[in-house]
Amino acid sequence: MNQSLYIRIEAGDPYDSGSLFPIKPEGQRLTFGRSSHTNESDISFISPYVSRSHVEIFLNDGEPFICDMNSKHGTDLNKQSLEPNVPHRLQSGDIISLAKGVVLFTFLNTDTSDADLTMEFTSPIQSSDTKVTKGLHIIPERRQINIDGEPLFLSGKHTDLLVFLYRKKNQAVSTDEIKIHIWPERILPGSNQIPDVGNDEINALVYRLRKKLGLYGDSIVTVPRYGYMLQL
Predict the structure, then answer these.
(1) Which of 90, 93, 73 is nearest to 156 (CA)?
(2) What is the dihedral sign for C-alpha 195, 196, 199, 201?
(3) Does residue 203 fall inside a structural domain?
(4) Same domain, 68 and 166
(5) CB burial class (10 A; 0-12, 13-18, 19+) of residue 166?
(6) Which sequence ranges are marked TM in the entry (predicted)?
(7) Burial 177-189 (b: 16+ CB within 10 A, else e)
(8) Are residues 13 and 99 in the same domain?
(9) Are residues 69 and 55 in contact, defined by beta-carbon separation less than 8 angstroms?
(10) How far apart are CA 222 and CA 207, in angstroms?
């Protein structure tokens, strides 16, 4: 096994940001997909937008490749959509996005110098029309979050919640709205389309998101007996 090649999870439940997974040796494939009773990928996510067999990474003649497995919501490599079932060569620092940013991870070659890694990693996620300024900045279409000019990588549910609140910024959002938009996979038959999610789970998600936003966590305010609001 090549111990210098890794995948680093930046966002994607249930993994913590920064989790590392080594690339498998030649002849084997590192699989990514949605966890289910009938399928278990090497790296399994819980988002319903991730396909059961979404993408694979493998070595061919010692070179790393990625291949989208005809996923429903697609795979992006450095913001470029991958053609299904067509392998693409990977380079250290490449950013891979599943289902339009529901899952985000980075391919790393730790034999590369730190300076090279930093340059390659920051280049794809910087936007030419985004100025480096103080404050909390969100680009919902890209699921991109910057704090004081630096990118912030969150897990899928944290990103879902922050983007949803941002789209309704300065408006109170009810707990039922949050349930529907953040946990659509938990909608049960005969439940009036309200997912089976308790308020304690919502409160815990908001609490963790505030912690991750640091000084800007107070931007998420509680609306008593109703829900939450992103105040900008």
Answers:
(1) 73
(2) negative
(3) yes
(4) no
(5) middle
(6) none
(7) ebbbbbbeeeeee
(8) yes
(9) yes
(10) 11
Structure tokens at 187: 């909608």
One domain for residues 148 and 51: no
55 and 79, same domain (yes or no): yes
In a domain, 184, yes or no: yes
> Sheet harboring 173-174: ordered strands across?
173-174, 227-230, 220-223
In sequence order, which residues have a C-beta less than 8 Å from that of residue 103 and are 6 or more positions away? 9, 11, 12, 32, 45, 47, 50, 97, 156
Look at the block and give the residue holding tokens 């009036």.
192
What pLDDT shows up at residue 137? 85
Mean pLDDT by 10 residues, the chain (232 residues): 77 80 92 79 88 94 95 92 95 90 88 42 38 71 81 86 90 91 78 80 93 92 94 84
Specify the pTM: 0.51
